[in-house]
Amino acid sequence: MPEPLPVDLERLIATLREPVDANPVVPERVLRAARQHGIPRGRALPGSRWLVAAAALAAAIALVFILPARRQHSAARLIPFVLTAPHATRVAVVGDFNDWDPHATPLERLGADAWGVMVPLRPGRYRYSFVLDGSHWIADPAAPQSSDDDFGPRSSVLTILPRGT
Amino acid sequence: MVGHIARNSDRKASGEGLCHVTLTDGEVIARVLAGEVDAYGILVERYQRRFTRFATRLLGNREDAEEALQDAFLRAYRALARYQDRQRFGPWFYRILVNRCRSMLAQRRRRGMLERDLSREPASHVTREPDGDPAWLLRHLPLDQREVFLLRYVEDMSFEDIAALTGVGVSALKMRVKRGLDRLRRLEQEREDA
Questions:
Q1: Which pLDDT score, from 0 to 100, does residue B67 have?
Q2: Per the CB < 8 Å rule, is A27 touching B53?
Q3: A99 vs B171: CB contact, 8 Å cut-off?
Q4: Inter-chain residue contact B38 with A30, CB threshold 8 Å
Q5: In this structure, is the dihedral angle defined by the CA atoms of residues B105, B111, B116 and B120, taken in order, positive or negative?
Q6: Closest by CA position to B4, among listed B25, B19, B29, B18
Q7: Comparing C-alpha atoms, which of B146, B179, B147 is closest to residue B162?
Q8: pTM for this structure?
Q9: Can you tell me the distance from the alpha carbon of B116 to that of B146, in angstroms, rounded to the nearest whole number?
Q10: Model confidence at B87, in pLDDT bands (50, 70, 90)?
Q11: What is the full DSSP assignment across A31-96?
Q12: What interface predicted TM-score (ipTM) does this complex get?
């Protein structure tokens, strides 16, 4: 079930949804240039089939030998998320582990300045941010920043290693 | 992604030999590579219909969008023989198109054709809205947020379909949309307050 449209942006969205006719000149121009260029020529990358076969073999080895061994060490652990935000009225943590939902994992006030919550997480690499007062996103000042362009500059990275490593 | 029914425009572009035939993207590409260059018109019309509005909204004007589409179709054509996954022409073409749009925005910025392109920096305030056009607000979004906002709310695609098209994970897409909506709401508020 799709989520409802944001009501306050309905006017903008309605305007953007107005149809834009395709210009019939574009296909004509493309075809004219294609005819001038001629039949596209090229060669498949040498060895690409071998690469696919090698990847399939590696996946099979991982399934049979590596993953069962790692499963023993992959139980969830409670991970603390703590932030000092004396002026915030509410704080939440959002990340790969809760679908970036600002309502899913609120932090509780821990005294005058600090906020905190414990989140059960399995070993892995997670990107996350804090959301202050529902709309202000900040990275965790106590953690490394994500260099992933998808998330811009305001995400942090948390890596949880399996037990025994 | 794959057209299952040959549409009228498909037939018009495809020439005599392809009339009334249902062709997948892969089948069209095979014909082009076998020497039927005009069959490429099927793909051009198929994906031009699909992406004209998107490119127009992304770039902010129709002329640039048509130029970007035309350029992207030609680049795709020249590389067609080297492209292996022929049933997935749509996502491949989409990436070429978005890259062309990025390049055009960068060129515009260099030439000073935009009074201020805010696509890579946070908007500190909203400048005047030209001719009451609310779509102008969109220019204040970073390009990656603008792209996903358009696919989700204007093209009405599911996050799963957007992920298949863009190659970006669903969770990252949701975050981009969330940030884009937050920024648009702030801008809308600033505009009302001004």
A1: 94
A2: no
A3: yes
A4: no
A5: positive
A6: B25
A7: B147
A8: 0.58
A9: 16
A10: confident
A11: HHHHHHH-S----PPTTHHHHHHHHHHHHHHIIIIIHHHHHTT---EEEEEEEE-TT-S-EEEEEG
A12: 0.77
Burial B40-65 (b: 16+ CB within 10 A, else e): bbbbbbbbbeebbbbbbbbbbebebb
CATH assignment of A77-160? 2.60.40.10
Distance from CA of B152 to the nearest CA of A (A): 10
C-alpha span between A129 and A131 (Å, rounded): 7
Write down all domains in chain B, each with its CATH number in brackets: 1-114 (1.10.1740.10), 118-194 (1.10.10.10)
Question: Residues A21, A26, A32, CA angle at the centre, nearest 5°?
Answer: 160
Residue A160 has pLDDT above 90, yes or no: no
Task: With beta carbons less than 8 A apart as the criterion, state whether A82 and A108 touch.
Answer: no
Q: Chains A and B: how many Cβ contacts under 8 Å? A: 133
Chain B residues 66-105 with a CB less than 8 Å from chain A: 66, 69-70, 73-74, 77-82, 84
% residues pLDDT > 90 (chain A) = 22
Of A30, A38, A44, the CB nearest to B74: A30
User: What pLDDT score was predicted for residue A48?
Assistant: 46
Q: Do residues A107 and A83 make contact, with C-beta atoms less than 8 angstroms apart?
A: yes
- How many CA atoms, within 13 angstroms, populate the side-chain half-sphere of residue B129? 15
Residue entry with tokens 């949701």: B174
